[in-house]
Amino acid sequence: MDHPATQDWKRERLAKAQLALPPWLIFVPVDFERDDLGERLASAGFQQNSPAFFTWLGVVPYLTQEAIGSTLDYMASIQNSEVVFDYMEPPEAFSEEFAELVTERTKQLEKIDERWASHFEPAGIAAFLRSHGFCDIDDINFQEIKSRFGRAVKGSRTERLVFMWSTLNTSQAAKTGAHGSDKVLSPFQRN
Ligand SMILES: C[S@@+](CC[C@H](N)C(=O)[O-])C[C@H]1O[C@@H](n2cnc3c(N)ncnc32)[C@H](O)[C@@H]1O
After folding, report:
1. What pLDDT, in 10s, does the model give residues 96-116?
2. Which atom of ligand 1 lies at the shortest distance from residue 35's CA?
3. Digit-coded pLDDT (tens) for 155-190
4. 4: CA distance to ligand 1 center in Å?
5. Neighbouring residues of 70: CB distance < 8 A, sequence distance ≥ 6
6. N or C, which end of the chain has less CB nearby within 10 Å?
């Protein structure tokens, strides 16, 4: 899933580079601000009754809170869904040095008609996520990201990572023992 314009550009680059695409890969153009994610995924063959893992990295900071909320509502409506996303803390948390970098980056983004549209307070984000149907929330700071995934991880000290499971998942997992399965399931059905 990606914004239609970005996805077109990525596909052009892939074609130019003559990279072979894995046969299971399905491109789904979606604008989280405007489109109905469920409809977009369903028309691409996504089975909403299968477990799904959403990797939503590097996207949330560009979206409004409304678009994040409606996307989360949809993700949480899928039984056994899991999501990982990153978010940025509000500018008040920035060091002077990092604030300068952000100002630079903001100018670069403006030139390409993009902007960071959301920040979250770590103290408040869990309530927001719970109100959109998630529980089992693991929200880690940049130090913790580095210690779990290695010192080479690039990012900023105000970036945080959230892993979470939908409410449905927890009750279902309790019944089926589904957590920790090493089975890879594809929720897409090809026609
Ligand atoms: C910094 S990039 C992260 C890229 C991503 N992690 C990847 O591996 O391709 C930001 C991504 O957010 C996407 N994005 C921004 N606004 C969006 C929107 N309204 N709907 C869908 N995607 C959006 C952009 O298209 C871009 O792919």
Report:
1. 887 888 888 889 989 988 888
2. 20
3. 777 778 899 988 665 544 454 444 433 334 455 654
4. 10
5. 32, 37
6. C
Cβ–Cβ under 8 Å, residues 136 and 170: yes
Say if 186 falls within a structural domain: no
Q: Span 148-159, mean pLDDT?
A: 78
d(CA 88, CA 105): 14
CB of 139 closer than 6 angstroms to any ligand 1 atom: no
Are 69 and 159 in the same domain? yes
Does residue 133 lie in a domain region?
A: yes
* DSSP code, position 79: T
User: How many domains, the chain?
Assistant: 2
Buried b (16+ CB within 10 A) or exposed e, 73-83: ebbbebbbbbb
Determine the structural domain holding residue 164 and report its residue range.
51-176
